[in-house]
Amino acid sequence: AATKKLVRISELDMGILDANGNKVLTPNVTDAQMKEQAAFYQFIVKAYFDNVPAAQRYGIAQWAQTDSPSTTGAWRA
After folding, report:
1. Residues 54, 19 contacting (CB under 8 angstroms)
2. What is the rounded distance in angstroms from the CA atom of residue 28 to the CA atom of residue 49?
3. What is the DSSP code (8-state) at residue 67?
4. What is the pLDDT of residue 8?
5. Each residue of 6-64: pLDDT tens digit?
6. What is the C-alpha to C-alpha distance for residues 37 and 47, in angstroms, rounded to an integer?
7. Cβ(61)–Cβ(12) under 8 Å?
8. Residue 1 banded pLDDT, cuts 50, 70, 90
């Protein structure tokens, strides 16, 4: 806060791993995993609002809630 700089979360993006550390693609995500992910997003957004003064909030940009198509070569194929 002392810096007076604007604070932005850019490209907020997260994936889901199973209990063994393997990536879980969107079509295979369970309801329980989605609820855990939603809770983590809520934690992050709440922390942003709790810790960044209103005058310094520049926004939150979310990358995507789902995987990219496997044919795109995008960040999360």
Report:
1. no
2. 32
3. P
4. 95
5. 999 988 888 888 999 998 888 888 999 999 999 999 999 999 999 999 999 999 998 77
6. 15
7. yes
8. confident
Token pair, residue 13, equals 């993006």
**Pseudo-torsion of CA 68, 70, 71, 74, nearest 10°?**
40
For the beta carbon of residue 17, count every other beta carbon within 10 angstroms: 11
pLDDT band at 74 (very low <50, low <70, confident <90, very high): low
> Tokens representing 11?
């490209």
Q: Is residue 11 within 8 Å of residue 59, measured between CB atoms? A: no
Pairing between strand 23-24 and 16-17? antiparallel
